Amino acid sequence: MIEALFNPKSIAVIGASRNRNKVGNIALRNIISTFKGKIYPINDKVPEIEGLKTYKSVKNINDKVDLAIIAIPRDYVPGVMEELGEAGVSAAIILTAGFRELDEKGAKLENEIKQTARKYRIRFLGPNTFGLLTPDFNATFSPFDVKRGNIAVLSQSGGLGFYVLDWLQRYASGVSYFVSLGNQADINEVDALEYIVKDKRNKAIFAYIEGVSEGRKLLDLLYEVTEKIPVVFLKGGISSGGAKAAKTHTGSLAGSYDVFKAAITSAGGIVVERLEDFLELMKLYSFNEPVKDKILIITNSGGHGVLTSDAVERYGLSLYQLDDSIREKLKAVLPSYLSPNNPLDLSVEAPSSVYDIALDATKDLNCTKIVIGEYSPVTSCVEDAKVIMKYKGRSVIGVFMGVDEREAIELLTKNGIPAFNYPETAIRIISYLFKERKRFKKPDTRKPSIDIEKFVEGKEYLRDYEAFRLLELYNIPVAKYKVVYNENDVNRYFKELNSPIVMKISTDTPIHKSDIGGVRLDIRNEMEALQAYKELSKLSTRVLMQEQIKGDEVFIGGITDPVFGPTIIVGIGGTLVEVLNKVAYGIAPISYQEAEYLLKESGLDKILTVRGKNYDIQSLTDIIVKSSELLAQLKVKEMDLNPVIVNKRGALVVDSRILMMK
What we know:
There is one protein chain. The chain is α/β, with parallel strands linked by helices. Among the domains are: 2-130, Rossmann fold, CATH 3.40.50; 286-434, Succinyl-CoA synthetase domains (Rossmann fold, 3-Layer(aba) Sandwich), CATH 3.40.50.261; 480-547, Dna Ligase, domain 1 (2-Layer Sandwich); 553-660, ATP-grasp fold, B domain (D-amino Acid Aminotransferase, Chain A, domain 1, 2-Layer Sandwich). The protein contains 24 helices and 31 strands. A 7-stranded mixed sheet has the order 9-8-11-10-12-13-14, with helices on both faces. Helix 15 (405-414) links the parallel strand 19 (396-401) and strand 20 (419-420). The longest helix is centred in the first third of the chain and has 17 residues, at 104-120. The protein is flat, with a radius of gyration of 31 Å. The two termini are 39 Å apart.
């Protein structure tokens, strides 16, 4: 049915109007100017609109209608959907706003629409959508003609989507598909992406997302899609409306945006942090100008050359090294007062002809030429842009600053060469193309054993010793421990543990034990153990004795994200985990390859190997993978394994807290 939305043979516009300022007229005119199939305006008051015969209802059309565009007051939409069903219409675009996003009555109307659509198997976009644009027709109410190109855009904001269309008109090659998702009462971002990716005319897909409808389905699709085409995301709504008190370290660390970013990047997607990057990156994907990760800077401003060099290093690119032959070639053609280095500073006295000489001498170098043209007494940005145009296809990118910078940028972009306002922006945008992108195939999630299911049944919070037992059922190694309730237990169990030992309170509710003085370290004899017990038993009737392990502290946590589901978190452990907040996220379950990536992302790989430590990272990786399997199999709300101690002999969980879903 979704095929009828994107590739209809006939379209009816319900709410078509003679008023050229109304949505129903603008949408109709856009369809008339772009669509080659049959068009049926629906209006029960006038005989014709824009030269086309009108119909009182879609049921009066003696032909099959594939797609209906709806632009009428919200109260009438449910009734019209019923008519579409009776007439056998397969798809609809509901431009009308004022539904769930407005008030309770709107939410009720939207629910009625969904029920009717489900009854008649109608697939629909919206409501509250700006419309749909494909390579074959424009069913938006954009007031300007939309230039066609090779960039597909999905947007959950009609207003932002409209601006993107306008921006693509001015600065890039145009748009192939534009899908304004609206309220997503039926068709969502996964449905749209699944259809759009099949069209090989797309060079890249850009998605502005405020919320994800089907997290796991999106990741499965992205994993397949990103092998063929780049998919770039900008996420809206990332600020927390206020911090919620958490019962574990994990709760205070977990943020939906962090999980979103980790999820998308693990499937090969690209996440940008700001609208500027979202838009500017479209330039590089729109045009066919080759872009390399080695950079040659050509400038008439030494300061801009220095700042651009700094940006090259900051964003992980590299400066192109000019060899002696190129230096000699440049010396022969450039004025004697110029030094042939990178950055190649042509000086403020350089007219556009000097840019021409420099570009001609370097045009065959296997690098991106960032050509910075600052307006000066001897040249203008437009004059420099005209020179750059001669070298299209030679990996040139323009950067212009000065009174005519806008005209210069538009001149290059209209001729298919990327151009920017600031050199640092150009370098940052280029760096997205060369960032290491990982695509991790998720292992299959197995059903937990009967013993594990019985062990967690009915439990909301696992006490520390219960959590240790669950970890042992998953073959996750735990530092040797004993639970004691009296002094006799202390005397008996001390002999069974290797000293020194650590003693800590064991409570029925999750708390940070060290915060209330509930931990005693470096206990070496029975007398010290008995004294520690007397002190700790005032805080808890149950005390845990455990062998004290030396090594580095690691944090392994877990949550159930409302969108993407079970998620594992890895970072520096102990009390520093919340202070440093240097953690990496993975959607569970994860593979050993992804676990190694999380260690790298969190910086733990360097911490555990610095200065010849040679700690057993493989054992830690094994715990991370098995913990992710636990999270994927069980309904875990929050999990803390903190710390996990890593040394040369292996890795052991020392403390744990696990909260189960109700």
